[in-house]
Amino acid sequence: MYRIAVVGATGAVGTRMLAMLAESTLPIEEVVALASSRSAGKQVRYGDQLLTVQTLTVDSFAGIDIALFSAGGAVSKRFAPIAVEAGAIVIDNTSAFRMDPKVPLVVPEVNAQALTTHHGIIANPNCSTIQMVVGLEPIRQRFGLERIIVSTYQAVSGAGQQALNELMRETQAVLDNKDSEPAILPVAGEAHHYPIAFNPIPQIDVFEADGYTHEEWKMIHETKKIMLGDMDAAALKVTATCVRVPVPIAHSEAVYFEVSDKNATADQLRDALTGAPGVVVQDDPAQQLYPQARNAVGSKATYVGRIRPDQEVAGAFHMWNVSDNLLKGAAWNSVQIAETMMAMNLL
C-alpha cells in the first residue's frame, strides 16, 4: 500500500491527478494534498473523500512513497530532491528535469523501459509532445520514422487557470460588445499581452534566439529523447509551430511525417494504430468522422484521424491528433507512469 503526495493539489492538473489516483489500480493507503501556504486549509476531492490541503514544507515527504509534482518548475527544483532524499519516487509534471540526461522522460506507451534507469525522479513530458508520440510510435515501430513537422492548436488550459479565466472573460466581453484588457496570454511575464478570444496566438512560451518559442523547442527535443533516447538525435528530424487557440481543454495537432518504408500505405498506418495502446482511431471521411477537441475532454486516450498520404512526397503522410491536455497530457500520464512502475516492480 502506497502513501502518495500530490504537490500543487489545488491546480488544474493537481485536481485531475487526484481524480486519476481515485480511479487507478495503485493500492493506495493515503493521499496527501500539498500546496503553498495560500491554499493551506482548502479542501480538494479525492474520490468520495475531501482532503484538507497542507502547506508544502521540507518535512512534507516523511513516509511518502510516490510524490506527484505539478506546482511549477521552481517548486520542483527545490522540493523534488528533498522528496527523493526522504525516500519517495518523484514523478514531475514540470519542465524542471525533462532535459536532464540522468532523468528519464517517459510516455508509458512509448518508452516504459526508460523507467529502469531512474534515480528517484521521472519527468512527465510536455502535453503536446505526449499525444504526438503516442500517435506516432506504433507507426515508427512498424514503418520507421524520419521526419516530423507538427503544427499545434493548443487549448488555453495549458497556460493555467488564470489564462482559462481570461479566455472566458474576454469571450463574454466580445459577445457583450465590451472592452477587455488581456493580462496573461501569450506569456504572463512578457511585455505584450494579446486577447485569446476569437484570436489564435502563434506564441506559446518565450521566444528563443533562433526565432522558435520554447514550447516548440520542447516538442523538438523531447520527441527525440523519448523516441531515441537522445534529445539531439540526428536520425529523426523534428520541427514545430505551436499556436494557442481559443479552446478551453484538449490540444489538437496537424502532424506531417515521413516514414522509412516508402511503400507504406494509409491503410497500413491505420492498421498499425488500430488497437495500439492509448490510441483511438476516428477516421472515416465519408461519414465526417475525425477527432474533435470537445469530444476528447475527460478521456485518457489520444485520438487520431485524417490519416492520408502526401500527394507530393513518397513515404509522407498527414494525421490529425487530439487529446485532453490536462489528462493524457499531464495528470493521467503521471499516474500511468506510477502504475507502469508498479507493474515493472520498480516501486
What's the gist of this structure?
With 347 residues, this protein is of the alpha/beta class. It has 9 helices and 14 strands. It has helices spanning 12-23, 73-85, 108-111, 127-143, 161-175, 214-228, 266-273, 293-296, 327-343; strands at 2-7, 28-35, 43-46, 49-52, 54-55, 66-69, 89-92, 121-123, 147-154, 237-244, 251-258, 279-281, 302-309, 316-323.
What does this structure look like?
With 347 residues, this protein is α/β, with parallel strands linked by helices. The protein is 30% helix and 22% strand. It contains 9 helices and 14 strands. The chain has helices at residues 12-23, 73-85, 108-111, 127-143, 161-175, 214-228, 266-273, 293-296, 327-343, and strands at 2-7, 28-35, 43-46, 49-52, 54-55, 66-69, 89-92, 121-123, 147-154, 237-244, 251-258, 279-281, 302-309, 316-323. The strands form 3 sheets. Strands 5-2-1-6-7-8 form a 6-stranded parallel beta sheet, sandwiched between helices. The longest helix has 17 residues, at 127-143. The radius of gyration is 20 Å and the shape is globular. The mean pLDDT is 98.
